[in-house]
Fold this sequence. Notes:
With 124 residues, the chain is α+β, with helices and mostly antiparallel strands. The protein has helices at 2-17, 20-23, and strands at residues 30-36, 55-58, 65-66, 75-79, 87-90, 103-106, 112-114, 120-123. Residues 19-24 have low confidence and may be disordered.
Amino acid sequence: MQFTIASIATLFAAIAAASPAVLQERQAPSVTATFYRSVGCNRGPTDVITPPSPDVLVQDTAPCHNITIPETVGCTELTASTLTRQIRVYDQPNCPEVGNTHFWTYPEGSNNKFNQNVKSYRFL
């Protein structure tokens, strides 16, 4: 009788360990960037620049990430944000804070569209 109870207990433990809730990995916070040729980000799928769109930007502590896009970007759309920190996007490579550059800072978890090319980004 003890063998049966021990076997059932082992079986239940194995099932619990294999349940989807237990197996689900924690995914790093991220946001999806889609780059469009035209301003407005609403010209349809043929206006999307691929590659690199859509590009998943994963939140990290790196000082800067450069993005290489083979065409001029008219609009950048950030969607599906699960970020827990702000993201700052720049129209120049290497995330410059001074000089002839423009940058925008977006709150964590927000989705945005802006009519600007993006050459680099970082998380604050």
